[in-house]
Amino acid sequence: MAENKYESGFTLAEMMVAIVLVGIMAMAMMGMTRLYQNSYRQTREISQAFQNANFAHDLMLREIRGSDNISQTGATITFTDSNGVNITYRRIAGTNQLQRVVGGAPEIVAEQVVAFNTNYVANTNNSVVLVTLTINDNGSMVTLRNAVRARNL
User: What is the pLDDT of residue 132?
Assistant: First the structure.
């Protein structure tokens, strides 16, 4: 049988090189996909922490605005709402959580709280509460500051 010199195809060496190159490209793409997934997850967690802190900050300001009888010591503020219920906000240092206690029932309203300060300034014409809440999630630090006037004082 005579060999046909016009037969075409790939040699074994060419096939092995092609398989190795495709494998390297697939591994690189899997690594990039994992990197993107981790980045997305981390961004989502940071965003969730900031949203929770913003919610807690806004809730606290709204409750202070309609409160009576404000008392503040260090990282704790206690006041009475319009229904006569005592509300307390405090930072739990060991767990970096912001706790809200309503009528004796505690709940955690924010996590990764590294600083929580209130400053109650009572004047004859105007009573103002300055609230500062700082969170740190994976090295991203955000400080929320606001001043609120208690309407009922």
Answer: 92
Residue 5 pLDDT: 67
| Cβ within 8 Å of residue 151, ≥6 positions away | 65, 66
Long-range CB pairs of 136-141 (<8 Å, 24+ gap) are: 136/112, 137/45, 137/46, 137/49, 137/50, 137/112, 138/42, 138/45, 138/46, 140/46, 141/114
**What's residue 52's pLDDT?**
84
| pLDDT < 50 stretches in the chain | none
pLDDT at 6: 66
Indicate the Cα dihedral angle 96, 98, 103, 104, nearest 10°.
0
How far, in Å, are 14, 79, 152 from residue 111 at the CA level? 57, 22, 30
Q: With contact defined as beta carbons under 8 Å apart, do 97 and 135 qualify?
A: no
